[in-house]
Known about the structure:
Elements: E1 2-9, H1 13-24, E2 29-33, H2 46-51, H3 53-72, H4 87-112, E3 115-118, E4 120-124, E5 128-132, E6 138-148, E7 152-154, E8 167-168, E9 182-186, H5 190-201, E10 205-210, H6 221-234, E11 237-240, E12 242-250, E13 253-260, E14 263-269, E15 271-274, E16 278-280, E17 313-315, H7 326-340, E18 354-356, E19 361-366, H8 369-375, E20 379-385, H9 390-394, E21 401-407, E22 413-420, H10 423-435, H11 440-444, H12 455-464
Parallel strand pairs: 1-2, 1-6, 2-3, 6-17, 8-15, 9-10, 9-15, 10-11
Antiparallel strand pairs: 4-5, 5-6, 7-16, 12-13, 13-14, 18-19, 19-22, 20-21, 21-22
Amino acid sequence: MSKFDVVVIGSGPAGYVAAIRAAQLGLKTACIEKNRNKEDKIALGGTCLNVGCIPSKALLDSSYKYHEAKDSLGVHGISTGDVGIDVPAMIKRKDGVVAQMTGGIGGLFQANGVTAIEGAGKVLAGKKVEVTAADGTVSILDADNIIIAAGSVPVAIPPAPVDQNIIVDSTGALDFQEIPGKLGVIGAGVIGLELGSVWSRLGSEVVLLEALESFLPAVDGQIAKEAAKVFKKQGLDVRLGARVTGTKIVKNQVEVSYTFKDEEKSETFDKLIVCVGRKPLSSGLLAADCGVNLDERGFIFVNDYCETDAAGIYAVGDVVRGPMLAHKGSEEGVMVAERIAGHKIAMNYDCIPSVIYTHPEIAGVGKTEEQLKADGIPYKVGTFPFVAIARAVAANDTTGMVKMLAHEETDRILGCHIIGASAADLVQQVVIAMEFGSSAEDIGLTVFGHPTLSEAVHEAALAVNGHAIHMPNRKKRK
């Protein structure tokens, strides 16, 4: 029986980061991964690097470059002639990006002394981990500490069974070899909008069927409303309150039945993507007597420090409460590794940014205006449009705005929400400010480079207190 100070189950962003940090702290560490890639080798990196964040961003970037070359360069005086897209070449490049990033994890494991173990991990009683290899061979690891980072999987729905041919999940949607003439997407959340954007830019007619009556309910309402207008202008057909009731494959197409505005409807698509959310991958992960408990939704129950009910066993990432975000899981992994090493650190869950990588990007951190209203917290708002930012005008990319929320009395920043070019990077400035308890005035008094897109963050902070320079300020509410 092999003995380790730390055994990590899962090599996604939460698991591999936890393993590397634990090893850096001098702990003998192993990381178990059961998935294999297209070359039938261990697939380090989990969902994010293999079939999630990274490949989807590769396709988003490729498709946007195609769209820009085809439709948006004329204003700069650039003539391109006929522009084509080689979809198999685009997919091949995406696979190359994945291979490069996942291979990098293997190199980091080697450099830091992490032992990578192929197989499916299961937590047993007494802080032991059972590893079942692909050939069925079973071995047992003895661990002083266990970190569960098993991740999540797409939610399946009975009306639309995935066959990864005509009806696919988010993984299958990354491997289309040709552009669907008409593409249906069940779910208009983050994944649906990103994947829908990819194929819409390349020429697909995209219809998103969303069961909820509200669009992007987790996003600040003003930003979500702006996003809805932008996506409609881009050609995405988002139908809210559309509940899929059944699917039928007919002559290599899929006929989708759904209810919409109290009417029974039917529509035929060349491909259908099912992306209605993800669920924790906790099934078969825990022996009944291991002491680790699940909540009613299948998430592993943990406290604020990611400790389970069993001493010495932790869980991080998508398999525990909180947003299913790679960066959230990674930081939980670091926190747990540090705590195992005896460093009493904690994680600030109030400062986790979220991003939708459409174009324009949508990003936010902290409270939305709706949440502040519901919580009865007095607040003030500052907004600033990118159309008034010189760098955005020069780049011909002026869609969107920055919205800053601060406490009415203390001026402390409570949230920031952005729709616009580079929103993912811009919001990080506010994440740092919030981490240090900054006020809107603090950002307003900070020198920002000119001309930059980040000046929109500066001006929104100034606008919170009626001090914006490059647009008229709103009159304060009495």
